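seq/struct pair 1
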Amino acid sequence: MIGRVVGVLGPRIEIEAEEQVISAVVSGRAKYDSRGVSLIAVGDYVEYACKLNNLTKIERVLERKSCISRPAIEKEGLIQVIVSNIDRLVAVISLANPEFRPGLVDRYLIVAFKEKIPPVIVVNKADLADPSEISIYIEAWKKLGCEVLFTSAVTGQGIGELSKIMAKGTSVITGHSGVGKSSIINHINPKLKIKTAKLSLYSRKGVHTTSRVTLFKLFPEGWVADTPGLKDLGLAGVDKKTLHRYFPDFSDLEAYCQFDNCVHVNEPDCAIKKAVIAKKIAEFRYQSYLRIYESL
């Protein structure tokens, strides 16, 4: 029988199959395969069987078509798969409260472009500020092929349009704590009643309300994975030499750099730095690149 993993709670795996959630276990104690990648993750399709004493056992994980992962905290070199079999990455950012943070979106876009997952950028809390103030960012992201929506979980603005996008396939919704990810999901489907929280009155920063990745059936043919507010998304498989590959606004100009192995930081006669000065590449995009480069 085939089911889908909707939650991982230590050794206990939650599978949705035949419109019910089943608790199952995996054979053995290993958490990672021979390549150092998570054996099981939310979003996986699995073959399972009911054994004696009503024990449900996962027998095989079907091949993943895509995934979002990060370096595991247990040991260097291991890769933790956060969610698998994804059709789109929905990056939520707030226009205000907490403050607008385009650099975090650029970090999520690296993940989307690396894994070839179509990105959707949702600017939430559009009722709290003037959207025209961030037009330079919206224009740059649209040039990269990103779909950009303005939403408000309070007024309902843009929620219908977002619902149509998420109606089929699997969406991963992610963003900094407090931007309104869970509120958006609750507005689309109030029956889910996902926990939400206000901003910290002291710091004006988001409070973590989603503590683990969970997959929900949002529509008859549409799934959504609500992820924790990841303050620092580790970029598995990305280093200083390869980072530029996931900035598509660089790709057409890199051939004009003086050095074939130019990473667009300290090298002379760099076509990317010239393009930033000439405003062919958005300044904020290049600054995001430099910050992420230094973090790797």
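seq/struct pair 2
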Amino acid sequence: MKGEKRKLVISKTITFLFIVGFIILFKKIFGDENTLIGVTTITGALMFLERNLTTRKERYFFELLVLNIGLGIFSYIAGLNPILALIFNFISMFIIGYIFSYDIRSHMYVPFGLQYVFMLAVPVDLSGLYNRILSLIFSSIFIMVVQIIVNRNKIEKEGIPAIKNLIDITINLLKSEDIKKDKELKLKFDSISIKLKEIIYNSKKENFHIETNGKAMIDIVIFLRSICNRKFEIEDKEMYVEALKKINLYIEEKRDLRTLNEIDFIDTDLDLKVISKLLINLQNKKDKNNFVVSEELKSKNKSNRYFNKNSMSFRYAIRIGITIGLSSFIVDYFNIFQGKWMLFTIFALIQPYSEYGKIRTIQRMQGTFIGAIIAFVLFSLVNNPIIQSVFIIGVGYLDSFHKTYKEKMIYVTISAIGASLILGGTFKMVSTRLILIMLGVVISAIGNKFILPYSIEDAKKELVHMYALNKEKIINEIRSENKNGSLENLYIVSSLIEKKLYEFNYNEEIKNKKEEILDEYFTFKRKVLS
């Protein structure tokens, strides 16, 4: 445990130093007015690591470039007068909210939304627009370079170790005689398998086709899970354990997996034989990009991209667009000093789900209040700017270890107030900032409650409906004589819906359906692959 904590501290420290160094360099190259774009660039690069953009590098880079430049131009136009601010800020935030919020995957709107609000807070004139556009172009390039370095061949780099871990868990489960330990091992198995499925899902070709190696990994997970489920039906568990240990040894020592059939016992059990066959397919990398996508699947993918006004994404986009648009209009029209703090607060607290907005609002108020008291006391007692700067850096470092939004807001408030005072701000200015933050809290609460609210209960109903439809598609695909290549994709989607429903504590309602899907899928794959 101590070793894990040490690794975490080292990892967080290195990341923190890299981020600070990157922002300092970004500021030096693109100027003070674009420093915050450096912050959102590194934020975006780190957040997008969970998505694999290397499957279509050129297209994703072009989309990032167009989006960044477009937002830069829109923020400039919005700064010309309050009416344009109302229109262009609504459009920009709507686009960001709609495109980058998702039903079954983690949202990605934060770096783009924060970047846009930063550009509103620190506007540039026409002469400074050129440098701002350059910084946004660099941002797009940097995100894609990080993707190519980290996510190239992501399925192989992260998938094979995940398979090895799942085999280890299966071995331990077969050896275990403790029911409580069995449950823990199965939960661990499901946790690793869902992460693997997410990696495969986020590495799809053409946004809907899973590569051959990804399909093989999904099937390996299914067969290993089946072994876990029928543990008490297996008579010769020792044979399974020995065979799985040898398979893992082959993986660990990077032996030629095509010789797996030489392992004793492999041919005596159908499931072990299928697993070894699938592992051999993984090593045969020359087939990983050889796929034919049916026109039916292409057309289904296109038809899924519809504009649904009742969806969570649409409602969130409208809500964030209206609140930021109207608030920026008020700030510009009345020329409110430090009005940017109201916008930052609104962006942080307007959430896709109403309940999350309420929770964040309470935590924001608590964190801001506690952070303000600490900052006022601390910076009243210590007047040396050097020591104050060290405090701010230390607080920024501690922020990387925060566990709750409330803790984060304590650190952020201390840093913001401290930086303001060091740069010559007065306690009156800081008080004005806190008032604007609280005004932002009030506007956010009103927006979350009255502007097309979307509750967790709404999400549950939608997800259960999606789950039922997806289950039907899986069964139809299994029983259809004309397969269109969508089965593995559909199976992963069902797993992602399950994960989202578990987050909402809604697992019992789909428990039976989950087992039905697993049984249907496993029976079909066993028949096809044996």
